[in-house]
Write a structure and sequence with these properties.
The protein is mainly α and 114 residues long. The chain contains six helices and three strands.
């Protein structure tokens, strides 16, 4: 569930990706990443959006976030959907994406728009 999400500030994400803070904000604006303000007012995103081994965004995530945005999902709603258990995926959509099943998850997200 979303309560179990590990959050990192956008500034930390920028550092991990080797990008400027402004560039990460642009990625959020373009729906390649999703971020929300925490209770402290700091813009943050789930740590799972970034690869651990390499300084990059999880493969398939930017396209999926665009599909969710096109379906009318806000960043907060998209993050909630990504981290909500789905029995048909045997876990969360985010877990499925990280396991290399982004096409399957993207198909489900496309169905949300109809």
């Amino acid at each position: 569930m979303i309560d179990r999400v590990e959050w990192i500030p956008v500034a930390t994400a920028a550092e991990r990706l080797g990008l400027t803070y402004r560039r990460v904000l642009q990625l959020v604006h373009e729906h390649s990443l999703a971020a929300v303000r925490g209770p402290d007012g700091v813009l943050r995103l789930p740590a799972d959006f970034l690869m651990v081994e390499e300084p990059q965004i999880v493969r398939g995530l930017p396209g999926l976030l665009t599909v969710l945005a096109d379906a009318g999902y806000s960043d907060d709603e998209a993050i909630g959907w990504l981290f909500t258990e789905d029995p048909s995926l045997e876990g969360t959509p985010m877990r499925a994406i990280r396991a290399g099943r982004s096409t399957e998850v993207k198909r489900r997200a496309q169905a949300l728009g109809f």
